[in-house]
Amino acid sequence: MATKEQVLASLEAVPSPEGTPLPKTGTLSEVVASDGKVFFSITVDAAEVKAWESVRKRAEEAVRALPGVTTAMVALTAERKAGAASAPPPHAGPPPGARGGPRGEAMQGVPGVEAIIAVASGKGGVGKSTTAVNLALGLASLGLKTGILDADIYGPSLPKLLAIREKPQMLGGTRLKPISRYGLTVMSIGFLIDEDTPMIWRGPMVISALTQMLREVEWGALDVMVVDMPPGTGDAQLTMAQQVPLKGAVIVSTPQDLALIDARRGISMFKRVNVPVLGVVENMSYFLCPECGTRSDIFGHGGARHEAQRLGVPFLGEVPLHMTIREKSDAGLPVVATEPDGEHARIYREIAARVRDQLKGPGAGRAAPKIVIEA
Ligand SMILES: Nc1ncnc2c1ncn2[C@@H]1O[C@H](COP(=O)(O)OP(=O)(O)O)[C@@H](O)[C@H]1O
Ligand SMILES: [Mg+2]
């Protein structure tokens, strides 16, 4: 297996545009080398990105040539010049050209992919990934060619939720072939990093890795791609929302007040970057007793519906807290695929149909209503 030191040694032969050996340029992130997979990023001034693209390619080739390396992913990241604002101020509209501006390269869309939608939540553990998977399966069951991209660098969960143990294959040395499961085209950042890889996937490296997962993966023709976003509404999430050419966002929340505050922040974040909010899903909305079928509203069911109404965004549906959903989900057997005739699958399909209608209906593409949200 290649070590970090061997990787750095191989990069000595790769010069910067000025001719300096790459490891001496001060542009490299930490190098992660584990189990034959190597990742790092090169961070350069935004104005110099073009000149560095060939350096990135050469670095990747140099690392890939090392014995024992199966995957090499080098991300090129543009850093704003000092003094430039790092994020738009709250409640402000996006800066002119923010979508398709200097970062426009990432906003060109993914060839062959009709619509990319984000599934997001204000915080982790609300069932974002479970919802993303079953929503994607629901969209597929409606006849849409559907892909799912796991961009949750804090907790990639698609390998588990879809019981995928194989690694994606390289196609022609540069592009990755996604995995197929239950009729979905699947790619996860979790395929590329081990569960115990240290959490150095922060900031710019992450964003660039996302761009590469969109662009260097052979997605093929898709009607819709569902992106399982990292939870939260911080700078990393905001930048990701700006980096991906999103047609819309689905917000997942549980009904509790605290979760709703986070969901509100999520809605506000997408509005700030002019991404239409397709709607809110209330997950773990009510409890269905598996024995007797009795329903109880342990978390104060209905909170997300009210919140959606208050904020003027569509409400997409309620998913009960149910042991079957958990067990199936955690076993890699998502209910929409494995119990298509069940009640849960029906609920997810209805949510998927509303999402599809939002994407093509009059609400889609309409400018977000001007509502000031106290985040
Ligand atoms: N509606 C539900 N009913 C029962 N368990 C659920 C439901 N939605 C999610 N879970 C479970 O809750 C846990 C967290 O869900 P997950 O989708 O991983 O959340 P997130 O992606 O927001 O962190 C998982 O164990 C999952 O199986
Ligand atoms: Mg998750």
Provide structural commentary:
With 375 residues, this protein is an alpha/beta fold. Helices cover 34% and strands 21% of the residues. The protein contains 13 helices and 14 strands. The strands form three sheets. Strands 4, 5, 8, 9, 10, 11, 12, 13 and 14 form a nine-stranded mixed sheet that branches. The model is unreliable at 80-106 and 364-375 (pLDDT under 50). Adenosine-5'-diphosphate binds next to helix 4, strand 12, strand 14 and helix 11.
Notable features of this structure?
375 residues, binds adenosine-5'-diphosphate, alpha/beta, 14 strands, single chain, binds magnesium ion, three-stranded mixed β-sheet, nine-stranded mixed β-sheet
Q: Gyration radius, to the nearest Å?
A: 21 Å
The helical percent reads: 25-40%
Number of strands: 14
Helix/strand class = alpha/beta
Report mean pLDDT, rounded to a whole number: 82
